[in-house]
Amino acid sequence: MAPSALDRLIERSLRQGAQSLYRNAPLYDHLYAERKDDVAFYVKMAQRHSGPVLEIGVGTGRVAVALAQTGFAVTGVDAMPSMLKQARTQIAGLPKTVRARIVLHRGDMRSFALGQRFPLVIAPFNAFSHLYSRTDVERALAVCRRHLRAGGRLIFDMVMPDLAALMQDPSRLYRCADVVDPVSGERFAYSEASHYDVERQVRSMTLQLSPKKGKAQPRAVPLTHRQFFPAELEALLHYNGFAIEERFGDFAQGPLTENSETQVIVARVRRRSR
Known about the structure:
By secondary structure, the chain is of the alpha/beta class. It is built from nine helices and twelve strands. The chain is globular, with a radius of gyration of 19 Å.
């Protein structure tokens, strides 16, 4: 059956929400410059499970650069040319020995094939939150299985669904701290609006950037994240051939609690029952 006009509209909206924030890679880096706990965690996991490392959703290279500086070979995959361009710019300024450890590819996490296997596959900072359907999840986890060596680990993190945030009034703007565009230097008032699609479990946010002064145009950046609840995530992993080995509620490896903002998962390929 051909998709309806509504289905096509929803698909276009999800695609915009999966790409818009990442088109301005310098701004992305600026927004998340203080996010460092996850970087230290993934370096620690690489030291535990060894490399080389495959990073899905490598983005601008935040984690990949740290891994390479620690001595690990990293292959990074991302769907967004803008993010890969920013990553290559940053990598170009590294010492030659560190640069040589990083290889980047453009690819869709649901379908890429490198013809290599790794002892560690990682997907940091909500990369899997852009898998909006069961089919998307199945395809992405199949890609992970194909790229894991025997005994390897899949490690990723994603946001813990926040019931209060999911219930926010979609007509209201929630004020955040001001943002300075790292390229133009212009200051913007930053607010967020949020809508939750209960059926699809997708939270759609709009990042509103309003210039404080000058001639800059207001910006509205959509961002869509699929929400995965812990038991649901465990079932999806199980029925796609994985078992959760460890699960944390933060990057300090604390327990998952009602106050956790993040789910951190360490999974292995599940042994088949005889």
